[in-house]
Amino acid sequence: MKINENFNNLKASYLFRDIAQKVNAYKSANPAANVIRLGIGDVTLPLAGAVVEAMLKATAELGIAQTFRGYDDGGVGYDFLRDAIAGYYAAKGVTLGTDEIVVSDGAKSDLGNILGIFAAGSTALIPDPVYPAYVDTNTMDGNKIVFMNGFADNGFLPMPTDGLTGDIIYLCSPNNPTGAVYTREQLKTWVDYANKIGAVILFDAAYEAFITDETLPRSIFEIDGARTCAIEICSLSKLAGFTGVRAGYTIVPKELERGGASLLALWRRRQTTKFNGVSYITQRGAEAVFSPEGLTQCRANIAYYLENAKIIGGVLDKLGIRYFGGENAPYIWLQAPDNRDSWEYFDYLLNEKNIVGTPGSGFGANGAGYLRLTAFGSRENVLEAVTRLQA
Amino acid sequence: MKINENFNNLKASYLFRDIAQKVNAYKSANPAANVIRLGIGDVTLPLAGAVVEAMLKATAELGIAQTFRGYDDGGVGYDFLRDAIAGYYAAKGVTLGTDEIVVSDGAKSDLGNILGIFAAGSTALIPDPVYPAYVDTNTMDGNKIVFMNGFADNGFLPMPTDGLTGDIIYLCSPNNPTGAVYTREQLKTWVDYANKIGAVILFDAAYEAFITDETLPRSIFEIDGARTCAIEICSLSKLAGFTGVRAGYTIVPKELERGGASLLALWRRRQTTKFNGVSYITQRGAEAVFSPEGLTQCRANIAYYLENAKIIGGVLDKLGIRYFGGENAPYIWLQAPDNRDSWEYFDYLLNEKNIVGTPGSGFGANGAGYLRLTAFGSRENVLEAVTRLQA
């Protein structure tokens, strides 16, 4: 029996372990310190009332013979939820077939599992810096990785360059960790490029709900030509605080074919063979997210986080600290002042300000010298943190 | 961009589609007929009260800031649940470390995804007949498949034969679809064999809760030597009716190494990279399954299904129809009388008795001439069905 040797090529991930060790060491030495975590990528506000109500009802149904439900027939999501998602997209001006939407337990699962429908040894074009799972999943699957450089000069939004070739193109907009958002024109350039070279764009739209600027695209399918080159992967984690409830979905247009095969048919076959559907309770909660009442409640939470981001950004402006994001995204990506490296600035903030960020170097080589702050904390903590930053 | 060409080797799965078409055609032609489905593999009894109560409480917690929870830290399951599962195994006499248990959204996901830690092109030894997902997942991943023949003569329990070699050995006990259960002695032979040839046993224990005969093993880890050659994959779908709630777990012993690598470390890395944990609500429900009250309630449901199986088996005995299973399993695997083939007997039962089974040929070449009945129906339907069988 041989193991998958590609696992040997994975880099050990010490980022969050190292952060935890430093924070714990500081707290042990300074037990009275009120350390504020502005590095977390997890939401903190409770679920919307409409969602809780729907899940309580669904749970009770499962306890009664007449309303009990077993397997989600087919495992790709109940029609009631897929119709609700199609309605959410219709409001963005995007028309989707219910069959093109495949419901899952989250974007992270889909981002990893979707590689199974592509040939092993494919070349993935991955932005740097970016969410580290793209690199790890491609490494695990034996794919080749070509990094696309994000810098301050391109606003951390890499664009196609002469001679760039690959099979799978990752775009994450709004971006984790930089908060940068592609414009329609930029996505149109990417779509045309993917169609030209026959690549497939994996569009990670996990943070789309944070876009308030109506000129910015919230789905790749707002762009002409995307239906022949793009797959969109999205999540309810940030839209509705579902990080602990687990729901996401992947959209594969019917027109998307490669080598004569429908990628939608491949993805549905993968999911119905290696997956067995999402909790009925979760699916009823997700349906409620997309109801008028649910969307109003979820958007109030997003507005709260965006106000946090605005407060942090305003103080960075005052202090003359350069940053990206903070608008249309829950992330603030700041350049460490005085040419400090990511960990030096992390240590400074921890020791001098009792604020915890995430070192940018953890998101790729081009993250060196940057630090990620998130807007997911409480208002009280954000206000206290900015007071300390200004002190 | 190239697709994963292994998908081209998958056989189209028409079994349940063909069954549905035949049933629908019959019902259209005979609208007054009361067609009883004894083919379904899904549970029908509602969730246990203790489970519903726990999930209602967990749902309410997520709606309140002070008790809200986001990501399941690490994505391998909360300690409260893994400790409860370890306690369930301790009651079987099996000692497990909490770290050896990795919680997931179900056995089907784990059975498919676990192949990612093995080298592509591995040889899988798969019983015939068996749950079709083993074949499909290995085909998708480009593995070689060697079938191990189950026949009436070996009680549908294949054993190692001279010269049999492979990397991954699938054992499903109690078996789907035959209901056959390996004895301790038989599993000991398999464990010794796997250790000798360096293979890994994937032990599918999804139906373990139906074993009431205390001399029969409910876990591969009841067998000496299993900790160096076996992975156990289990589910709450049949133990607790979680087919629509989604929870399972995989046990990888710390001692299990191949090529110097810990398979537990590989599996945890796979799951934390391509998966993000199970719904908190589901995990609290699963914890309640393993409480004394929850187990009592779940076992009452299993006793109900086993009584259904006994009623069906008793009538088959009277009618002189040969069958396997029906004890220690929810499946009755019957040999079609008069040398009918699987579909002929299916048609006979549908048209003459208005009873729907599942043709055995859908589970592999050796299922030809057999039909699977399940015990998951209501008592009322089971009693009506056996009355018709005797008429």
Distance between the termini of chain A: 61 Å
Order of helices and strands of chain A: HEHHEHEHEEHEEHEEEHHHEEHEEEH
What are the segments of chain A in which pLDDT stays under 50 over at least 5 consecutive residues?
A: none
Give the number of DSSP strands of chain A. 15
Number of helices of chain A: 12
- Proper CATH architecture of the largest domain in chain A: 3-Layer(aba) Sandwich
Mean pLDDT of chain A: 96
Shape by Cα distribution of chain A: globular
In total, the number of domains of chain A comes to 2
- Sheet with most strands: strand arrangement of chain A: 2-8-7-6-5-3-4
CATH superfamily of the largest domain in chain A: Type I PLP-dependent aspartate aminotransferase-like (Major domain)
Give the class of chain A from helix and strand content and strand pairing: alpha/beta
Percent of residues in helices of chain A comes to 25-40%
**Biggest chain pair contact, residues each?**
A-B, 75 and 75 residues
* Portion in strands of chain A: 15-25%
What's the alpha carbon Rg of chain A, rounded to whole Å?
21 Å
Task: Please state the oligomeric state of the protein chains shown.
Answer: homodimer
Main beta-sheet annotation of chain A: 7 strands, mixed
**Per CATH, what is the topology of the largest domain in chain A?**
Aspartate Aminotransferase, domain 2
General description of the model:
- The structure is a homodimer of 391-residue chains.
- Chain A has 391 residues and is of the alpha/beta class.
- Chain A folds into two domains: 13-47 and 294-390, Aspartate Aminotransferase, domain 1; 49-292, Type I PLP-dependent aspartate aminotransferase-like (Major domain) (Aspartate Aminotransferase, domain 2, 3-Layer(aba) Sandwich).
- Chain A is 38% helix and 15% strand.
- The first copy, chain A, contains twelve helices and 15 strands.
- Chain A has helices spanning 15-29, 49-62, 79-90, 107-113, 133-140, 184-197, 237-240, 263-274, 280-289, 292-319, 342-353, 379-390, and strands at residues 36-37, 101-104, 123-128, 144-149, 168-172, 200-204, 230-235, 248-251, 257-258, 261-262, 323-325, 331-335, 355-356, 358-359, 370-374.
- In chain A, strands 2-8-7-6-5-3-4 form a seven-stranded mixed β-sheet, sandwiched between helices. In chain A, strands 11-12-15-14 form a four-stranded antiparallel β-sheet. Chain A has a two-stranded parallel ribbon with strand order 1-13.
- In chain A, a hairpin with a 5-residue loop joins strand 11 and strand 12.
- In chain A, helix 2 (49-62) runs antiparallel to helix 9 (280-289) and helix 10 packs parallel to helix 12.
- The longest helix of chain A has 28 residues, at 292-319.
- The radius of gyration of chain A is 21 Å and the shape is globular.
- Chain A starts with 14 loop residues before the first helix and ends with a helix.
- The mean pLDDT of chain A is 96.
- At the A-B interface, helix 2, helix 4, helix 5, helix 8 and helix 9 of A face helix 2, helix 4, helix 5, helix 8 and helix 9 of B.
